[in-house]
Write a structure and sequence with these properties.
- With 239 residues, the protein is α/β, with parallel strands linked by helices.
- It is 46% helix and 16% strand.
- It has eight helices and seven strands.
- It has a seven-stranded parallel beta sheet, sandwiched between helices.
- The longest helix is centred in the middle third of the chain and has 29 residues.
């Protein structure tokens, strides 16, 4: 049984990913930032269904908190599947964006990637098998008005994905990024109406969290061993 950590695992996309990984037979560590109760509820649900799961909470932007939490996790065994899903929006036109808006978004998506991934790398490499999936966005590929901070953070995450994949490819570890488009979730609720979605998305609908989770599940499997360093879009043909 492989151990999988999903940051932001208590959110809409994160919880769908946790369910897929649990169904694949992995021990799933459901991460939350502040809402530990929600992560615990999901872990309890998975266990009730006969799967193996636990919940944990820490701030991915806090280096010390990450080191402490991850050291405790690794004591029980290496994390071989890591899904860096934690991310936030703090939108605004760039001319009016303040430093806090910029730093909060970059710190979670990019700083969080480093704070969580780096301490887990050596234990993962020693097992000679690993899967790292970084959750990016169509905004990093096409850009989006009002999201210069978010696009910058996710774009840098894509570059980090490619670079890290080269470092660990010979060790049995793959590193890929998934770039969703408009997905029905808490984060997009009330942002896109049906008319806007039909205009923007060639398939004329928003994607589902289950569709994103299915892609992550595949990239986490043995079948995806020859896929690494890739940015894989799931956006209904937007770009």
């Amino acid at each position: 049984m492989k151990r999988a950590l999903v940051t932001g695992g208590s959110g809409s996309i994160g919880s769908a990913i946790c369910r897929v990984l649990a169904a694949q037979g992995h021990h799933v560590i459901v991460h939350a930032n502040g809402n530990l109760a929600r992560a615990e509820a999901l872990a309890a649900e998975l266990c009730t269904q006969g799967h193996s799961a636990e919940a944990i909470a820490f701030d991915v932007t806090d280096t010390t908190a990450c080191e402490t939490a991850l050291a405790a996790i690794v004591e029980a065994g290496a994390v071989q599947i890591l899904v860096n899903n934690a991310g936030i929006h703090d939108d605004g036109v760039f001319a009016g964006m303040d430093h806090g808006q910029w730093s909060r978004v970059v710190d979670v998506s990019l700083g969080g990637f480093f704070n969580v991934t780096q301490p887990l790398m050596l234990p993962m490499i020693r097992t000679r098998w690993g899967r790292i999936i970084n959750m990016s966005s169509v905004a990093a590929i096409a850009g989006n008005r009002g999201q210069v901070n978010y696009a910058a953070a996710k774009g840098a995450l894509q570059s980090a994905t490619r670079a890290l994949s080269l470092e660990v490819a010979s060790r049995g570890v793959t590193v890929n990024a998934v770039a969703p488009g408009i997905i029905t979730s808490e984060m997009t609720e009330g942002v896109f109406d049906r008319e806007m979605i039909e205009r923007m998305v060639p398939v004329k609908r928003a994607g589902t969290t289950d569709e994103v989770a299915a892609l992550v599940g595949f990239l986490s499997s043995d079948m995806a061993a020859y896929i690494t360093g890739q940015i894989i879009s799931i956006n209904g043909g937007m770009i």
